[in-house]
Design a protein that fits this description.
CATH topology of the largest domain in chain A: Rossmann fold
Radius of gyration of chain A: 28 Å
Helix content of chain A: 40-55%
Strand content of chain A: 5-15%
Largest sheet of chain A: 7 strands, mixed
Structural class of chain A: alpha/beta
Mean pLDDT of chain A: 84
CATH architecture of the largest domain in chain A: 3-Layer(aba) Sandwich
Shape of chain A: elongated
Distance between the termini of chain A: 31 Å
Largest interface: A-B, 102 and 102 residues
Number of strands of chain A: 18
Low-confidence stretches of chain A: 395-405, 407-413, 487-501
Oligomer: homodimer
């Protein structure tokens, strides 16, 4: 079984007990310094510096050769000039090293002589069954061993993604963006020239790892397209693989040759390879993450019919345009649904899809609308726009420091009143009694509704039912109740001339709504993709992620549909 | 002269002496509340609330009718139900009001009856020569009178852009993104149904205003394409006009009809209209700003030949692919330039375009490379990738808190030594003596070079020459010298267990480099567009703006070329 072979082969790479950094140095202006620092940073096993001239590196006893190290060495990281790599690899074979990361450049990407050198390194490594990453790469990250075998300190967090990138900078940028967005990586490899372990080998290995939910790859050129299809098509039947592959133009093909030494190949050939392998293709580094977040947070849509709920007409127009351009069907809503929405929206609402309440001040109506759209057989997915509104607008209100905030705060109930309610809530929440909890949630929701200026009893009941439902499934926890005093804290803070608090309050409200959204996604089993107000203003991270525009949300939804259709063709997906 | 007519006609709208908010209220859950709050916020003229029922609004004496207001009223803002707009407009005519903003919805976008109501309002307003914005809009911002006649508190700053948007939400999102990016608006109008003042009227008016450098517009549908071409083609000969126009698909056309009441028209027709009018077309709201920032910070490129300088091969590959896809020519560099770069880069560098030093640790070489590329006749523009590196990586270093930072800090010179140098600098800088300044800049640059691990005298001389050159043209001021003690402060902070300072230090270095870049742009008269490392990590604002990816930079560059070619065809641009 090939999967066991690859798992066994790459195990010492991702879970080594000990690491040697060959070329580790005290000279902070060399890569050997930052690589050694990175390897030290958090890794729980032993890390040995190897340096011919320096007796001690960063306070660690250094060894002249790998063979001088007293204990066993599982992984060797090379940060030495290219011509020294073959003899040191011989030492590694002699030492019984199991895996390598060759950061050093100057191999296949550097012309004929470099290619020869690379072949030599592969030949030596094979003698000792050493599997290695690179050469000409930036290194790797393994969450399970907390190892940053990387060229410089890298901002990456643990999470459900795995990524093999033929570009260290693009890979690092995506990993860092993931950090900013609150999503992390179980494995990350910058594979460079991929002389030994091929891109499809990494993908096969990630495919076998239950910790990995979605696989990303940046490919400049494959060494063997047929092998890629064979191996990766087995993985894509289990989990999504998303690829970024430049090289549409001759200018890029030239750049690829001098960068990773790969042959870019024709764009049409790669489209065929990816289609056969069931790989989803992204257009930018950021889109790799966009799509990955879609797969992580959403179920697969049953079909191409999409509804759009928007707080503003122009957002809806742009989103509808993108959906239709991506081959999604902005479906006409049935008359009964129009009638149901007529009841909660003012007469000026769009009365169609996109659903646009046209500046309705009743935000509770907006928030309950998905519950009227998602049950429809005609609707496979919903794009919910302008999400994270409270977080987005709170800084604005603070910033302006205008009469708006002052008067707004003045209309709120008293601190004492609210504290009484909260202290009554806590023991009941701890008791876990559902009926009692419902009784407590209701006044909190009423207060929230009051905050939004809503007094329609039926609508408040609707929303309460949603929140208690989401609490029952564990998607919303009770902590939002204790955030409500911030309504009051805001008032007090304004009186003291501070204006920072509404952001926290707003975040609590957005967090509550995020829970309701996750609850809907689970209950209806349909994608419910949110977008924020602007590219710049988005305070939502991880599972609260909202795409910065309808266009980006539409692209992601189209990719989810593409993957579902692939699984359908393969006989794996059944609605 | 039509321009004088439009300037005179719209003057009371953008520079009113007094404003009446009709529908102003103390009920904070109505738009009349937030609109009145907004109008109060910063406007220097008089603001009168008009409300039939409330005698006082937010502490201001309210009037039952506009005609009851004792002083003159230049501008009336309508936030009342649609059927009340015609009689109140009659009052405005009687009062001698000069301009209006009708936020109220329920007109042309709401069907036949709404259209009739809209015609009625236009008819009445014409009697009194009242020009008005809307209806069905979000309002407007005028920097010259600091007036936010807007539906809610809006985060917008003063600056060289003007924007007319047929979507209030898309417009607001772009304005807010501008705020985040550090670029502002002299005028912003949400024009809604554009019953009276047409999109081309606003553009004509912005065209006459010397404060406005670049004009943006979001268009759902034009009422008169021929009139648009006539008026706007006059403006585009003077300054760029950038348009976002959805409606490629039938789904969007339907959404447009119910949103702004406009007819979307065919995409091909709009392409023709924009081409004839010399309007640049953007694909997203964010791209409106991307392109605007390009026009604000760059000269027009002489042609399509582009060079790319990249700190990483994969960035260069993606950027080259985008440039070529956008019709730019990733030019082959002459042998002399390759030879010149051979001297400053290690042998493994890409030896072609994109120029990639392939992980060279000598950052001074990287920073001086543009000076070797920009003088070439073969190069019309340069994309300089990975800019803002110091700001980007500093938080990473702080975050890790690893041995890296500790050892790095330990290698720096002493605080006393540096303070001595700085105190010697200040009086000389004040003297303005160029030769003396050069003498002082040199050691500071040497220290910076030391910080980067460079000791090649020739390269330090090169860089010193660049910095003193940029100081001579005023693009770099001497303050960066006084930021250098932060190298030391960083060291001290690390010893105390704090780790925040390198960000400030890094910003000082990036700010110095931004100045050098502006200097180059001026000296060579060619675009030098920078990109940052990732979409998420970009700390650069305003004139230091760096695009988040090579793809976005390439799109902007292509638009600058497109505008230059338009001006060339019109006989206005001559190389």
């Amino acid at each position: 079984m090939s999967e066991y072979i690859i798992v066994r082969a790459l195990e010492p790479l991702f879970n080594p007990g000990s690491v040697a950094v060959i070329g580790a140095t005290n000279n902070w202006n060399k890569w050997g310094f930052s690589t050694f620092s990175s390897a030290l940073d958090g890794f729980k096993g032993k890390v040995y510096p190897v340096n011919i001239k320096e007796g001690e590196v960063l306070g660690h006893r250094a060894f002249k050769r790998v063979t001088d190290i007293p204990g066993p060495v599982d992984l060797a990281i090379f940060v030495i000039p290219a011509p020294s790599v073959p003899p040191v690899m011989e030492d590694c074979v002699a030492k019984g090293v199991k895996a390598g990361v060759i950061i050093t450049a100057g191999f296949a990407e550097a012309g004929e002589e470099g290619e020869k050198l690379q072949d030599e390194v592969v030949r030596i490594a094979r003698k000792g069954s050493i599997r290695f990453v690179g050469p000409n790469c930036m290194g790797m990250w393994s969450a399970s061993s907390n190892l940053r075998a990387f060229m410089f300190p890298m901002l990456v967090m643990n999470g459900p993604l795995a990524f093999v990138s033929q570009g260290g900078n693009v890979g690092g940028a995506v990993a860092m963006s993931g950090y900013e967005r609150g999503v992390g990586f179980h494995r990350y490899v910058s594979c460079g020239c991929a002389a030994d372990i091929q891109i499809e080998d990494y993908i096969e290995y990630f495919g076998e790892d239950p910790e990995v939910k979605v696989i990303l790859t940046y490919i400049e050129g494959l060494n063997n397209g047929k092998r890629f299809i064979e191996k990766v098509s087995q993985v894509t039947k289990k989990k999504p693989v998303i690829a970024l592959k430049p090289g549409k133009t001759e200018a890029a093909a030239r750049a690829i040759k001098s960068h990773s030494g790969a042959l870019a190949g024709s764009n049409i050939i790669y489209d065929t390879v990816f289609r056969k392998a069931g790989v989803i293709r992204a257009e930018t580094g950021e889109e790799l993450l966009d799509i990955a977040l879609g797969f992580l947070t959403q179920p697969l849509p049953r079909g191409r019919n999409v509804a759009i709920l928007t707080p503003g007409g122009s957002y809806g127009v742009l989103c509808a345009d993108s959906c239709a351009s991506e081959g999604l069907n902005v479906v006409r809503l049935p008359e009964e649904t129009i009638a149901a929405l007529d009841k909660i929206f003012p007469p000026r609402w769009s009365r169609g899809n996109p659903v646009d309440p046209a500046g309705d001040r009743n935000f509770i109506a907006y928030l309950t609308a998905p519950d009227k759209i998602l049950p429809l057989d005609e609707v496979d997915s919903l794009i919910f726009m302008g999400f994270g509104s409270f977080s987005s607008f709170a800084p604005m209100i603070s910033f302006l420091g205008s009469s708006f905030s002052q008067v707004f705060a003045a209309t709120l109930p008293s601190l004492e009143e609210l504290e009484q309610r909260i202290s009554a809530v806590v023991p009941v929440l701890k008791s876990g009694n559902a009926a009692e909890i419902d009784k407590l949630v209701r006044p909190a929701i009423s207060m929230f509704a009051f905050f939004l200026g809503v007094d329609d009893k039926e609508e408040i009941d609707d929303f309460t039912r949603l929140v208690t439902g989401a609490m029952a499934t564990g998607e919303v926890d009770a902590s939002f109740l204790s955030e409500l005093p911030q309504l009051i804290a805001f008032r007090t803070a304004k009186a003291n001339g501070e204006a920072k608090l509404p952001v926290r309050l707003a975040e609590a409200v957005d967090s509550l709504l995020s829970g309701v959204i996750r609850h809907w996604v689970k209950s209806y089993g349909k994608p419910l993709i949110t977008t924020s107000f602007t590219e710049g203003v988005s305070h939502l991270r991880g599972t609260h992620f909202a795409y910065p525009s309808g266009q980006r949300a539409a692209r992601v939804l189209a990719k989810l549909v593409e993957y579902k259709e692939y699984l359908e063709r393969e006989g794996i997906y059944r609605a």
